Batch of 3 targets.
Target 1
Amino acid sequence: MVGQYYDDKTAKLVRKYGPGPRIHYHVGYYPSSEAPPPGNDADAIRGSIRLHQEGLLRYAAKIWGAEHRLSGKVLDVGCGLGGGSLFWAQEYGADVTSVTNAPEHAPVVNGFARECGLGGKVRTLVCDANRLTVDDGPYDAAVAIESSGYFNRPQWFERLSHVLRPGASVCVEEVFLTRPHGADVWAEYFYTKPATVRDYAEAAEAAGFELVDEVDATAETAPFWEESAAWTKAVLDNDSGLSAVERRQLRISLLANQAQGAEWRAGGLQLGFLRFEKK
């Protein structure tokens, strides 16, 4: 179901977060904890969103020590349209296997990789993360950017234990549960199953991984929802070519963005960066 959900969203993701080649589908990082004035120009807002999404990856790279932990053979698990995979390959020289369960995304990622001259550095693998097998391991690291909430965590860490070398890192950026209502707001729109940091740590420990780093960036990512809602409103206000179905979907998205932002600021959800090491 998740794979079909993201296959169906491909064109929408390109429209909101494109044009590429590095397209990201995750929140942005705002060091000042304040979003820029949103205005009513959809293209300008989209440019700001993309800038801050790249900022989130640069922040992740800093706290995860990407220059030595994410510069070798990397699994990008739940890669979306490959923005993160291209980032790790271009910025840190990583050889990346981009894992997706959305078949329609694989040729898009491969095309963007060729466009960047990274055909030999980024390859896609269509499979379920819980059944992950690779034939060219062991890997030096696995990265999951707002994708691990879709996985069965014990199964996922167990599979990673077979494909990562000793001492390898599992780097997770995710939305974590702090109270039930926050989980409902997140899960109902994105079809995911948020959990607590402790849930992750216990699943990792059982598979032979240790939680070694935890960074909370909830406040610094909250402004993303203001910008995301502003983009949606700008499209609704200015695009006269939208169909009735498209308008309805955008209004639902606008309400969801506003609800996420409210829950983020109220403390119902936590955005965190975790790093685990294989023992």
Target 2
Amino acid sequence: MSVRANRGATPAQVLVGIALAAAIVALLWIGWRQSAEPAPEPVSATTEASPPTVPSDRIDPANQGRLIEVSGQLRGTDPPRDEQFGIRAQAGAIGLMRGVEMRQWEESCAQDSCKYEQVWSGELIDSSGFRERQGHQNPQRSPFDGQLFNAAELRLGAFRFDPELAAQVLFDDDSPVPLPVRASQLPPNLAATFSDREGMLYTGDPEHPAVGDVRVRYHVVGPIEVSSLRGVQDGQWLKAPPPH
């Protein structure tokens, strides 16, 4: 998977983007493997130097067990939804990620001198070991957790998509992309807690965040245009080719 760097992005921001994308791919793959209906057992694939290019809108039984080449749009059959926050991805989306960051103190020390600044962090920062704990205590837990929501099933035209093959497509795609949201989309109990700014949700004052405040952002994966992909036809399934 590639991640486009915004103009002026720092190397650290680019690395964070790459790590986010890789984490989403891994979690999507795990989710599909755990929740999806098992694919049929592997068949003996007939490999060819130049596999036939077939339309993705119908399945030809004559290609059973053959390595084929297809193109089209990889889509989820049911848009992923965050039920707690009431946020739904667009039709055909493959995955929806809720990222949660909390405002916390961060300590940086050089020799006998330490500096403390407030940062947004997706991980809990343990302040119990700070040299100056007074006035720099961090919360021990976040009120919300980050989560990833999967489409129930993946399809490319008429073909059901094996998670092993989907992971290859995801690594070649420029995803995930931000999904701007507004507080008005939330259920009443959360809409009273959050405000929105630049497509993200905030507790507290977004302009003047305080330690313990939370911000929530969403990213969405897919649908994905697949220009050319090789896989083995196995009934309704399109599966990853066997290793050479």
Target 3
Amino acid sequence: MAMKATVTVFLFLSLFGLNTSLYREHYYVNEYMEWSDARRYCKTNHDDLSTVSNEELQSLSDNPQISYGYYLIGLSRDPNDPERWIWTGGEDATNVMWDRGEPNTVYDECGAVKKSTAKVHDASCFWPIPFYCMEVFELILVQQESTWEEALQYCRQNYIDLAGLSSDVIMTEAKNKSTPALTDDVWIGLRFIAGHWFWVNGEDLDYKVWSGDEELQCPAMDQHCGVYDVKQKNWKPADCEQRLNFLCVKKPLNYLFE
């Protein structure tokens, strides 16, 4: 069963000539698979085995859902050069946080992270252990003035969904992407129904940046949709029939997965 980790990270890419900012989310899969099978699972259900920065290693390893002492990531030796390690996206892995004495043998050709040290080990590609998959996303501002329902429909027809701003990282991206907005507020995927606020993309609403100290538990009848306030850089309830710009989330077409 795939379990979503609490880590989201920016990718500031010039990869393949791309000049944009993306973010990736990691999913812990509590199933025991060999590296190639794990990658096949990730490519089927997400994007790929996780590319992990050194800054992410500790947060991923702290995930309480981890059931084993090691987990696989999207790191392997270059089959044409055993001294070279690469990520599944083809990037050189030149700044890997190896554990002491690692890598220690040319016969171990895949990468795994030791939970207790949050550092990388070389490992047999045939060692069945849990693993992390990743998905890569991009926010896009639509400078079209629409109601909340119209914005939701537009995002789902043309991209993936209205944006869920579920972490500091994505909030920073929302701040950057909404700067050229033609309205002071922009629609996001927040909705109030049956006594609860929720993200329409199904994400947990654990992370909160409301304009007041707490979210409104009982907003007015005409205040059941959520906006990102471009100037105040927080969320607030709004009339769903207002016509505003909005933030969609999409898959970056130029990010290649082999």
